[in-house]
Amino acid sequence: MRKIEHIGIAVADLEKSSALFARLLGKEHFKTELVEGEGVETSFFQLGETKVELLQATREDSPIAKYIDRKSEGVHHIAFDVEDIQAEVERLKAEGFEILNETPKLGADNKLVVFLHPRSTNGVLVELCQEIS
Ligand SMILES: CC[C@@H](C(=O)O)C(=O)SCCNC(=O)CCNC(=O)[C@H](O)C(C)(C)COP(=O)(O)OP(=O)(O)OC[C@H]1O[C@@H](n2cnc3c(N)ncnc32)[C@H](O)[C@@H]1OP(=O)(O)O
Ligand SMILES: [Co+2]
Predict the structure, then answer these.
(1) Rg (CA), the chain
(2) CB contact at 8 A, 89 and 56
(3) Which parts of the sequence belong to the VOC domain (predicted)?
(4) How far does Cα 124 stand from its chain's mean position?
(5) Ligand nearest to the CA of residue 76, numbered in listed order
(6) Average pLDDT over residues 2-22
(7) How many domains does the chain have?
(8) DSSP letters along 49-102, please?
């Protein structure tokens, strides 16, 4: 794994939270993006080599809606940048981690993504991201 690609933060109101993070970070977000497959709308802030990804649910069965219902708004996942996502899945499986989707799916910002179950990673939801070339 090469670097933290982004930190995902679950929010209830994307517009309000984007304004809050703009004040906090001292810069505007660089884009919003709808990811239908995950039932989320995102707002991205660039911070050096990494990003903050705010996530609002767009439907009731979205993982973000469930997370906010069960817990609250807050840090939802950490995403790591990888060079070869399929090779990384094989390596992590052999290490005993629980992969949620062995076939990478389309994420935001031109990435293929795979998630690891938080029960195999000390309670932290981990996302792997590979840039689509
Ligand atoms: C924008 C696209 C993409 C990107 O490009 O960046 C994204 O980031 S999309 C982000 C949203 N998508 C996902 O989160 C997909 C992966 N997540 C899942 O598959 C599920 O959310 C889950 C992790 C398998 C949990 O689903 P489920 O089992 O249905 O939820 P429960 O509410 O029943 O919780 C079970 C268990 O897991 C704990 N949990 C749930 N979410 C998290 C989390 N984000 N971080 C840490 N722990 C989490 C939950 O507390 C339960 O624990 P116990 O109570 O101990 O059983
Ligand atoms: Co993410």
Answers:
(1) 14
(2) no
(3) 3-131
(4) 12
(5) 1
(6) 98
(7) 1
(8) TEEEEEEEESSTTSHHHHHHHHS-SEEEEEEEE-S-HHHHHHHHHHTT--BS-S
Angle at 27 between CA 44 and CA 58, to 5 degrees: 30
Over the stretch 50-86, which tens digit does the pLDDT of each residue have? 999 999 999 999 999 999 999 999 999 999 999 999 9
102-132 pLDDT tens trace? 999 999 999 999 999 999 999 999 999 999 9
What does DSSP assign to residue 109?
S
Q: Which residues pair with 9 in a beta bridge?
A: 54, 75
- Give the tokens for residue 45: 């802030």
Q: State which amino acid sits at residue 125.
A: L
pTM of this prediction?
Answer: 0.97
Per-residue tokens: 27 = 């810069």
For ligand 1, atom 21, which residue shows the shortest CA distance? 63
Q: Complex ipTM, two decimals?
A: 0.98
Q: Measured from the CA of 76, which atom of ligand 1 is nearest?
A: 44
**Domain, as residue range, for 19:** 3-131
The atom of ligand 1 lying closest to the CA of 79 is 6
CATH of the domain at 12: 3.10.180.10
